[in-house]
Amino acid sequence: MKFIDSPTEQTTAVTDAVLALVALGGLLYLRQIGERDPWKAGLWAWAFGLLALAAGLGAVAHGFQMSEATNEWFWRPLNLALGLIVALFVVGVIYDLWGQALAQLALPVMLGVGVIFFGMTLLRPGKFLVFIVYEAVAMIFALGAYSWLAATSRLPGAGWLAAGVLVTIIAAGIQAGWDGKARPLTFIWQFDQNGLYHLVQMVGVIFLLIGLRGALSI
Hints:
The protein contains 7 helices and 2 strands, in the order H-H-H-H-H-H-E-E-H. Strands 1-2 form a two-stranded antiparallel sheet. 44% of the residues are buried. The protein is mostly helical. The model has no long low-confidence stretch (mean pLDDT 93). Helix 3 packs antiparallel against helix 4, helix 3 (68-98) packs parallel to helix 5 (129-151) and helix 6 runs antiparallel to helix 7.
């Protein structure tokens, strides 16, 4: 396969690859610091692992020339991974709000919701807005939860977790609200909305990891 010619697609692929490495590093870090609460650490490690998988697949889908049919085969597991990431994120929030027992009950339900989202992407291929809406609902819930936990000092690291969620919402807003293909941003390289989304999301991932370090210390 040949590299894609589009400069914005090239930067999207590169930033996707870097995001994959950041997420993979987060997974390894969580495995190191999660001895006190292996179930919670494992839940978040799975979320970061799926993020690494999705970003890696995105790097290939955006970075190489291929037929539309082949590209679609990369997007199918990518969309499934995205749906499951959001589902696991919600379960993680439920854990911090109400404890492990309820989180364990919520896990299969939320995984089912993630699969339903994946089914919607099969019915409406190419409509990434479906993921933005799905993610936005989950992130608004998470932002409210972690902001309350931070304000009441009920969870160490909750402020960082809230900041990570807020940055994720900002990243999603950039991706959904700006047509970077028509008006690319040039800063050394050309970026469309996808490349900028990845850059901002990396900051969100780092904030989440800082927050999880605090949350897993209790």
